[in-house]
């Protein structure tokens, strides 16, 4: 039995096998989420994970456009 651990596409936390949510887009890309909070922030609210301190992708000092 292999333990496949994938990072969450929003917060970068590990998603263990058998947990989390797999979201398949129409173009064929697959996104993994650890919780519904992450899924809603990414898909419904279209937020950037680099702007939130609770994510692993947070950039201190801001992001440049």
Structural class: alpha+beta
By DSSP, the count of extended strands is 4
What is the CATH-assigned architecture?
Answer: Roll
Total domain modules: 1
pLDDT averaged over residues: 90
List low-pLDDT spans: none
Under CATH, the topology can be stated as: Ribosomal Protein L24e, Chain: T
Query: What is the CA-atom radius of gyration, in angstroms?
Result: 13 Å
Distance between the termini: 44 Å
Report the total helices.
1
Give the biggest sheet.
2 strands, antiparallel
Order of helices and strands: EEEEH
Helix content: 10-25%
CATH class: Mainly Beta
Give the spatial strand order of the biggest sheet: 1-2
Shape annotation: globular
Portion in beta strands: 15-25%
* CATH superfamily membership: Ribosomal protein L24
Description:
This protein is α+β, with helices and mostly antiparallel strands. It has one domain: Ribosomal Protein L24e, Chain: T. Helix content is 14%, strand content 18%. It contains one helix and four strands. The strands form two sheets. Strands 1-2 form a two-stranded antiparallel ribbon. Strands 3-4 form a two-stranded antiparallel sheet. β3 and β4 form a beta hairpin. It is globular, with a radius of gyration of 13 Å. The mean pLDDT is 90.
Question: How are the secondary structure elements laid out?
Answer:
Layout: E1 6-7, E2 14-15, E3 21-24, E4 30-33, H1 36-44
Antiparallel strand pairs: 1-2, 3-4
